[in-house]
Amino acid sequence: DYLDPKKLCSSQVSDITEDPDNNLWIATYWGLNRFHRKEKCFSRFTPDPHDPNSLSNKFISSLHVDQFGRFWIGTVGGGLNQFLFKSKTFNHYFESHGLSDNQVYDIAEDRHGNLWISTASGISRLNPKTDQFKNFFNDIEIIDNLLLSQVITHDESIYIGGTNGVVHFKPSDLDKPTKTLPIVFTDIRSANKTIRPINNKI
């Protein structure tokens, strides 16, 4: 009975994770569920149009608890959410905040605590300390804009699977400064005639 608030709100489960207090969280296509192991029942979190601090979208694609114990929820259509344990409310991150797309498919974390978010329009990196996004499109050879899953390996390489295969890169390569090439004049013309410099001056 999916109308029972103490039961799983959908049989369509997309992800499962555990928080620092050993609570089990289940993502579904109809909302977020927390499983209470002792009581063997669920509590649920779903969007409430009258509550701006509720879950932004019922279609949940991915869950991630970061190294600092923060709980992140990816939704398909409602961007990225962060669940605040004390208040049981949600912070929201949308395209208007810098996210590359509101359709989020997967979340991974590097050793610096940055979140790498696969979306329908590339990949976004969120620095949770500053709440700043940086989006990558042409910086990496994205084989398909629709990026569905990813993993960060022990050597800090990111492997991303999309609808057209897998691509990988290292985040450190994206932050290398681009080389500035000197400007060299090979010829200067006026009225279609070459101007010759005198004492290195024109």
Provide a brief overview of the structure.
The protein has one helix at 171-174, and strands at residues 13-18, 24-28, 31-36, 41-45, 60-65, 71-75, 80-84, 89-93, 104-109, 115-119, 122-127, 132-136, 147-152, 158-162, 165-169, 189-190, 193-194.
Helix share bin: under 10%
Profile the largest sheet: 4 strands, antiparallel
N- to C-terminal distance: 85 Å
Radius of gyration: 24 Å
| Major beta sheet, strand line-up | 1-2-3-4
Mean pLDDT: 85
Overall SS class: mainly beta
Uncertain regions spanning at least 5 consecutive residues: none
Number of helices: 1
Spell out the helices and strands N to C.
EEEEEEEEEEEEEEEHEE
Strand runs, count: 17
Beta-strand content bin: 35-45%
Shape: elongated
Model description:
With about 200 residues, the chain is mostly beta strands. It contains one helix and 17 strands. The chain has one helix spanning about 170-175, and strands at about 15-20, 25-30, 30-35, 40-45, 60-65, 70-75, 80-85, 90-95, 105-110, 115-120, 120-125, 130-135, 145-150, 160, 165-170, 190, 195. It has a four-stranded antiparallel beta sheet with strand order 1-2-3-4, with no helix packed on it. It is elongated, with a radius of gyration of 24 Å. The mean pLDDT is about 85.
